[in-house]
Design a protein that fits this description.
With about 60 residues, this protein is mainly α. The chain contains three helices and no strands.
């Protein structure tokens, strides 16, 4: 099970991009242990858009 919901990720990324709070302030406000997840979500959002923040279910890798 994922630690953070898709909705939570979208909420924080939106607040970061369009609000006036930085990584530290947002992670503190939402009781996150570090800024790393939020930084990753923002980076992923910038590269892939909303689809990048969605959970990937049932991904099977064939390593052969």
């Amino acid at each position: 099970m994922a630690k953070y919901s898709e909705e939570f990720k979208i909420k924080l990324v939106t607040k970061y991009l369009y609000g006036n709070l930085g990584f530290q302030s947002l992670t503190k406000k939402y009781s996150m242990p570090s800024t790393s997840p939020l930084r990753n979500w923002v980076s992923t959002y910038k590269a892939l858009g909303m689809d990048g923040l969605k959970r990937r279910k049932g991904i099977l890798l064939n390593l052969n």
